[in-house]
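Re: that chain you flagged

S.,

Sorry for the slow reply, it's been a week of failed gels. I finally had a moment to sit down with the sequence you sent. For the record, here it is as I used it:
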Amino acid sequence: MSGLSIMCERGVPADEDDGHVFTPEGLSDAQAMGEACVVCHARWPRPRHPLGVLPDGAPVYGCAECAQLALDHHTNTLEQHLLATH
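Prediction finished late last night. Pasting the structure tokens below so you have them in one place:
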């Protein structure tokens, strides 16, 4: 899961983009071009789940398993935040 450590802060306001901006440093060419999962490097089946963008706006993708983990993490964080605000 080393790909998660290369995420940057959000690059644009939340109403314009709901993904993360990934720094290209540390990504393979295949990951940066969307041909490999940005998290686990899997190439087959070709990743189809958008997980964020590069600073230039190019999308990066994840495999089904990593996309589900990212969704679960985001959902759990949101639920914990909502619970903490009440």
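What I noticed first: The radius of gyration is 13 Å.

Talk soon,
D.
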